[in-house]
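Write out the bound-state structure for PMV.
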Amino acid sequence: MDKITVSAPGKLMLLGEHAVVYGHPCLVTAVEQRLKVTVEKSNTNGLTLNAPDVSVNDYYKPIAQLGNGEIPKGAKFVEIAVLNFFQKHKFSDGLKITTNSEFSSQFGFGSSSASTVCVVKALFELFEIKTTPKEIFDLSYKTVLDIQKTGSGFDVAAAVYGGVLYFITGGKVIEPIIAGDLPLLVAYSGVKADTVSMINLVKEKMQTHKEGVEEIFKNIANLVEEGKIALMEKDWQRLGTLMNFNQNYLEDLGVSTEKLDDMVLAARKAGAFGAKLSGAGGGDCMIAVVPEEKRKNIEEAIKSVGGEILDVKVSNEGVKIEI
Ligand code: PMV
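---
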């Protein structure tokens, strides 16, 4: 095989962000918006990358130099994924890679981890090496850690497995949850968040207020356990209440913003079962669980405080071959 296209979904955190970095569980869902990667063998001695969504055009690096020198932000995950795969499986072929996303990298849907997972999956296929989803997860997660130095891997798991997952740090547990038609509403705050700096902010809090932060994490972990049951029972009212509690804890951790607070409050006032920020905080998206008959009103309420409604649905499909 000389060429393959694979795709993987983006993700949204339902419950448990930040606590999951410290060994606690979280609940994550994959979303319908996907990222596509085409990988083909080329007769150069290098990696050529085109990732127009993140302004990477005709980037070239000799295979022997992968991982060395300056790497543009938008090329990092692809380059290090190739490097890790080649080192592990002893290849050094020239490659041409092109990525295309159905969602903006601004939203915090996990475009970096989705592109990493796509590249790893595509390389296993292209070089005809038998693999398992867990192996794709492990190599992709290693890639993310090599670059970011921190992170739970929940986003990688969503891209590999799809659907709703109960997830524990580093993939210790990755359990699919059958949640049916989760009535999710998603809105963008207009601000791009920087995950690593938000993780560092919580790390500083952990150093100055260890007991308090650990207490918050324990409470968040309890919400996740209850949320897992609520999801399985499709008890959206209960899930919403848990999201509200989770948001309060995230506010205590200092990772929410005035804009996110306003959007969350507007959603609740207009009749959402519950609402919270989703992900690292500091911007990106908020999510709400909503009664369908009130969806339109809730959308209007969020728009009136400056939120941008995104058309996002839960997806059951993890990484897959397109052609
Ligand atoms: O910024 P996002 O949406 O990728 O979410 C980060 C969630 C954290 O729990 C803060 C980090 C992590 O890797 O789990």
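---
The chain has a mean pLDDT of 97.
Residues 13, 17-18, 20-21, 108, 110, 151-152, 154-155, 193, 195, 199, 279-280, 284 surround PMV (CB under 6 Å).
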